[in-house]
Design brief:
Layout (H helix, E strand, L loop, with lengths): L3 H7 L26 E5 L4 H11 L5 H8 L1 H5 L20 E6 L5 E7 L5 H11 L4 E3 H10 L10 H13 L7 H9 L13 E6 L5 E7 L20 E4 L3 E7 L1 H6 L2 H10 L4 H16 L8 E7 L4 E5 L5 E6 L2 E6 L1 E2 L2
Parallel strand pairs: 3-4, 10-13
Antiparallel strand pairs: 1-5, 1-11, 2-3, 2-6, 5-6, 7-8, 8-9, 9-10, 11-12
Helix pairs in contact: 2-3, 10-11
Bound molecules: aspartic acid.
Length: 337
């Protein structure tokens, strides 16, 4: 029988170590960097990585690559967790959260933004054009419209139908959603792919600079006004060019409670590999939540300045996609349960 230990040992792509190349020049030589590279939460985001690669592969900047890459799921009407076509809140409104951060610590984000297909582009403008980091709701929309964005209906017929089906059978209690999702999705081994597909993307460019972006429609059928971890710098995304970068997916409340992505980066600063740093951070959530952790999914991915990558999740079913000069790969993350 495949127990947890043998599962971890036998999984072909569960270790990021294949990307770690040892220098042969001598101990004093700097470690060769595995760059450029791009990594994203969830398997379907190989297409987002490919878009980012159009910039990274030509020697472009990580910040431009992540901004371009995450626009793929944002514009995809069939991706019901990000941008256009995202599942609405419990009142039937699609509200979006996104943030972006570059190698110098510049960052920008939007929360509770409605009617705009590409919240990541608005987040980038908040970073580049304002003295602020975060704009919310009506103010974020006003800023977007002033900068030429078009107001569009983001609720697709597919997502409207899913919401109406949910209204028939579900209580107005968003905190029961993680459990419902797990019962529904973990049974067939897909994890929470259909309701927790936030894209968090990190790129390391040819110049050795790290940047990240994170964008989502948030937890399906959330309370109106609810904001998750994804647009919060330090929670859903964090970049420190001297150490590494991390991003998250899953139940945002749990990630916010421990400043998740910042915690992953701080573990890497202490010398842990990206894999170990993600694992330690997930373990911290599990310890704090006790038995409740069984009903939650949270996953982190991380990259250090050498281009070593890693990921870890509370529950099985979390995947991440990586593109390097060696091609595109999907990893099935190790998990606690
Ligand atoms: N982290 C997101 C949130 O809590 C959800 C997700 O990853 O799908 O809004």
């Amino acid at each position: 029988m495949l127990n947890r230990r043998t599962f971890l040992q036998s999984s072909l792509f569960t270790s990021a170590s294949i990307f770690i190349k040892k220098t042969v020049i001598g101990a004093a030589s700097p470690k060769k960097r595995n760059k450029p590279l791009v990594i994203s939460t969830w398997e379907p985001n190989v297409t987002a990585n490919a878009e980012a690669w159009k910039i990274l592969g030509k020697g472009g900047k990580a910040i431009d690559a992540v901004e371009a890459g995450v626009q793929i799921p944002e514009a995809n009407p069939h991706d019901q967790s990000v941008g256009y076509g995202g599942l609405p809140d419990r009142d039937g409104k699609v509200t979006l959260d996104a943030c972006i951060m570059d190698e110098t610590g510049n960052c920008g984000g939007v929360v509770f933004l409605e009617y705009i297909v590409h919240p990541i582009k608005v987040a980038r403008l908040v970073m580049d054009k304002t003295p602020h980091v975060l704009l919310a709701g009506e103010g974020a929309l006003q800023f977007a419209l002033e900068n030429g964005f078009k107001k569009e209906n983001l609720l697709t017929p597919e997502s409207e139908k899913a919401w109406k089906d949910w209204l028939k059978t579900s209580k107005y209690d968003p905190m029961t959603i993680p459990k419902l999702l797990q019962e529904k999705d973990l049974k067939d081994g897909r994890g929470q792919q259909h309701n927790h597909d936030t894209i968090g993307m990190i790129a390391l460019d040819e110049a050795g600079n790290l940047s990240g972006a994170c964008t989502t429609s948030g937890m399906a059928y959330k309370m109106r006004g609810r904001v998750g971890d994804s647009p919060i710098i330090g929670a859903g995304l964090f970049v420190d060019n001297e150490v590494g970068a991390a991003t998250s997916t899953g139940v945002g409340e749990e990630v916010i409670r421990i400043c998740g992505s910042h915690t992953v980066v701080e573990y890497m600063r202490m010398g842990l590999s990206p894999d170990e740093a993600c694992k330690k951070t997930v373990e911290r959530i599990a310890k704090k939540r006790g038995d409740k952790a069984n009903d939650l999914q949270v996953g982190f991915i991380a990259v250090n300045t050498n281009g070593d990558i890693g990921g870890y999740a509370l529950q099985k079913g979390f995947t991440y996609a990586v593109q390097t000069t060696e091609g595109s790969k999907v990893y099935h993350s190790k998990s606690m349960f």
